[in-house]
Amino acid sequence: MEVTDIKPVRTATLFGQPMGLFVLFFTEMWERFSYYGMRAILLLFLLDSVRGGMGLGEADGAAIYGIYTASVYLLSLPGGWIADNLLGQRKSVWYGGIIIMLGHIILAIPSGSGLFYSGLCIVALGTGLLKPNISTIVGQLYPEGGARKDAAFSIFYMGINIGSLLGISIVGYLGQKVGWHYGFGAAAVAMALGLVTYHLFGNRYLGDYGQYIVQAPTGEGKSPSGNRSLLLFVAFIVALMAILQLTGILDLTTAQGLAKAMGTIISLIGLSYFAYILLAGGLDATEKKRVGVLFVFFVASALYWAGNEQQGSSLQIFADRYTELTVFGWEMPSSWFQNLNPAFILIFSPVMAALWLFLANNKIGLPVPAKFAISLLLLGLAYVVMVFAAEFALTGVRTSPLFLTFTYLFFTIAELFLSPVGLSAFSKLAPKRYTSQLMGLWFVGTSLGNLIAGLFAGGFDKENVQQMPQMFQSVAVFALVSGFVLLLFVKPLKRWMGGVE
After folding, report:
1. Which phi and psi angles does 14 have, rounded to 5°?
2. What's the per-residue H, E or C state across 222-271?
3. Residue 433: in which H helix or E strand, if any?
4. Rounded to whole angstroms, how far apart are CA atoms 46 and 113?
5. pLDDT by residue (tens digit) across 25-50?
6. φ, ψ for residue 413, nearest 5 deg
7. How far apart are CA 427 and CA 150, in angstroms?
8. How much is the pTM?
9. Residue 21 CB-half CA count within 13 A
10. Cα–Cα distances in angstroms (integers) from residue 327 to residues 55, 323, 333, in the given order
11. Crossing angle, helix 468-488 and helix 285-308, to 10 degrees?
């Protein structure tokens, strides 16, 4: 069945948006509570050797953190394929939520490293199945596209950040002040609440959206060599990893070696999957140009998230070791600094949603590629702030919380220029039969950024604090240069979008 054949559900609206949006809003809110809450304490748990943590060194702990957060988003690609070809989006969201809940239950059980890592794997598998498909259903609610769809994704993004704010506050406090596994258990409860919301209200307010698998039009199916190409690609990846291991370039038996290998795999998957869709996906000329634009957005997204996702890695270490935490005689959990990002997003999301509608209504154009470029420039400014913070930390005095506050403020504005806009762009520009798979590729970009963030944090060794300013400076320069380069290509990218706004 084609998406355009689905009968729209006629239902009540709230704030001018269909009620189905708010079903997805609350489902995603509880899922993000579980993800961001657990992520807030994960690296601290891996490094802790006093309160029952894993007791790992910075390099290994950060590598494992990066592998996990990267896997969560990398698995969105097969999650999108499963929805497009086997289950449909609605069932994928449901089963993904159940798997996530089971993974968090395992993490809540005090045990050895084997069971703990199994729990992380299960959470990652479930998130990969849920994450791209719930965003795809949001896009299907607005077949007309336009500024209203952008505003809907901004509202949906508020749900993500309410969940993040609640999760970091509750899981962070329980994990750091009560016990690590109490925090992991709270994440399981949150996912259960999300499943209840989805089950009770999904059928009533979502109609047929996300229920059906989209079939390729006659004569435009995948190339007969498609499956063979996929098998050859998998064989190539396996052979490449074997060569890297045997030649000693990488050691896949260590966390750091595995993380570096995963970076190679993610990069090859992203490049190859785009090439596969372009060359063997049965696309017409207009669709190919639009997929080419999505590839540029994919690269920009990976660059952005490599900086933003330092929140749970290098910036978490900076908050814990080098930032003043005492407020009116009470020492707050260092993980609470991660709350600044969702708190600022909740403040500024309505402002940005109103801005997009105002610009559209007044026919003032700010193309999507320009928004991505602005995002990278703001990210660079955030790390300029951290360069000054790191220089101050070298004096041996804990830094003012204002440094991280302004860093997170720049992160937030940058994120609102990129993330909800990117979600909306992928849902509008992707060929219908590849919608969930390309949404999965959007999250593969996030996956690569998360992995880079984890590997970057491995350099925050207590014995070598002098390198901190240079590390932050490298991120600032890279982000600023990338933003200026993208600005140069705004006009041609807009033409390739073929009239899609």
Report:
1. -135, 125
2. CCCCHHHHHHHHHHHHHHHHHHHHHCCCCCCCCHHHHHHHHHHHHHHHHH
3. none
4. 10
5. 999 999 999 999 999 999 999 999 88
6. -60, -40
7. 10
8. 0.81
9. 22
10. 28, 12, 11
11. 160
